[in-house]
Write a structure and sequence with these properties.
Blueprint (H helix, E strand, L loop, with lengths): L26 H13 L36 E2 L2 E2 L2 H15 L10 H101 L5 H146 L6 H13 L16
Antiparallel strand pairs: 1-2
Helix pairs in contact: 3-4
């Protein structure tokens, strides 16, 4: 069964319509005011819902004080489209029978608004919980980003450590260069010793030439020669020792450089593997926890939405069941009104015939009887014209 909305109310989620002007006056007065506004070319409003009406077309036509029938607005009742004219007609019948202050339905629209407000209040915590979960997920993602930044910082520190090891390697190379410089100095000293030996040999030759002249000088020359030879041997030994030391230092420096390079590569590889594994473990754990919480929250939200949907369906069925007796009662009242209108019309016709019959008998000799009948008829109240048969405005 299609339900009928009161004018000025909207379903949740729809754009609100502008509030209609307050309903005042009887149905005839509202219809007359709307028709006068249409005839004067002014802005007219529907005599029932108060919505603005379009102006009368230039090609003419019968103006109507109600909105055009629209099945999308109020729905249908059987084969008929519920319109403002039909609702105003039934409201007029209702107010004449029960008075203007009687509510139209057993379920007042304010009660329906209260139920909708209660449902909205129940849904608000669910929305708040979903918002809190989204905030928490954002916080956890921020924490993961911070952890990743920390890992990047640790990686940078490891690279700095590798750079420091490279600096130490350069320092070792500098020390090897210094040792090489000392070896060159030793070679220079050896050259000087060779020069001294050459000078000694020259002096020996001179001493041999002068051996006959000065044996003492020859002996002295032999002593100097021996000394020079000893010095040359010592210089040769010193040069050999320096070369051996230089070769040992070069081998040690190269070995230390290779070892430092291997240690640096191993440390870099091990640190990269540890950081990558730690980062993957953290991301996997956080992703599993997030999916678990999201699934739990989604399940709770779906269950809550199902319960609220079932409550709303139950309330709708109760509302429809409440309206069914009311519409049946309106149909019965319509039939009773039609029957009483016919009876009232018959009584008026009989009364008019009696009055005409009495008026035609003015020449009757029984003046006293006619006088009493006229007084009795004059004492009777004037009956109002029977109301028009309620019909639905075709417009």
């Amino acid at each position: 069964m299609t339900t009928v909305d009161e004018p000025g109310t909207e379903a949740p989620g729809e754009h609100p319509r502008p509030a209609p002007p307050p309903r005042s006056g009887s149905r005839d007065e509202r219809r007359e005011a709307t028709l006068q506004a249409l005839a004067a070319g002014k802005q007219a409003h529907c005599a029932f819902c108060g919505e603005p009406l379009p102006p009368v077309p230039s090609r003419g036509g019968r103006p109507t004080p109600y909105c055009a029938p629209d099945p999308e607005r109020y729905g249908t009742w059987g084969a008929k489209t519920i319109s403002c004219a039909m609702l105003d007609e039934h409201r007029e019948i209702w107010t004449r029978v029960y008075g203007p202050e009687q509510p139209m339905t057993h379920l007042d629209t304010s009660a329906l608004d209260d139920r909708l407000s209660a449902l909205t209040a129940v849904l608000d915590p669910v929305r708040a919980e979903i918002t809190a979960l989204q905030t928490r997920v954002r916080d956890e993602l921020t924490a993961a980003q911070t952890a990743r930044d920390d890992a990047e910082r640790q990686r940078t520190e490891a690279l700095e450590s590798a750079e420091q090891a490279r600096t130490e390697r350069d320092q070792a190379l500098a020390e090897a260069q210094q040792a090489r410089t000392e070896a060159e100095a030793a070679q220079t000293a050896r050259a000087e010793a060779d020069q001294l030996a050459e000078q000694a040999r020259t002096e020996r030759d001179r001493a041999l030439d002068d051996r006959d002249e000065a044996r003492a000088e020859a002996e002295t020359a032999r002593g100097e020669r021996q000394t020079a030879l000893d010095q040359a041997a010592a210089a040769q030994q010193r040069s050999t020792e320096l070369q051996n030391a230089l070769a040992a230092e070069q081998a040690a420096a190269l070995d230390k450089l290779d070892r430092a390079r291997r240690e640096e590569e191993q440390a870099r590889t091990r640190l990269r593997d540890e950081l990558d594994q730690q980062h993957r473990d953290q991301l996997a754990a956080q992703a599993d926890e997030f999916h678990t919480r999201l699934a739990r929250s989604q399940t709770a939200a779906d269950r809550r939405i199902g319960e609220l949907t079932e409550q709303l369906a139950t309330a709708t069925r109760d509302y429809a069941a409440t309206l069914a007796p009311l519409h049946q009662r309106i149909a019965d009242l319509h039939e009773q009104l039609t029957a009483r209108t016919g009876e009232l019309t018959t009584a008026r016709e009989q009364l008019d015939r009696a009055r005409r019959a009495l008026a035609c008998r003015d020449d009757t000799p029984d003046d006293q009887l006619r006088h009493h009948l006229r007084e009795a008829l004059a004492a009777l109240p004037e009956h109002p014209a029977p109301p028009d048969e309620p019909t639905t405005d075709p417009e």
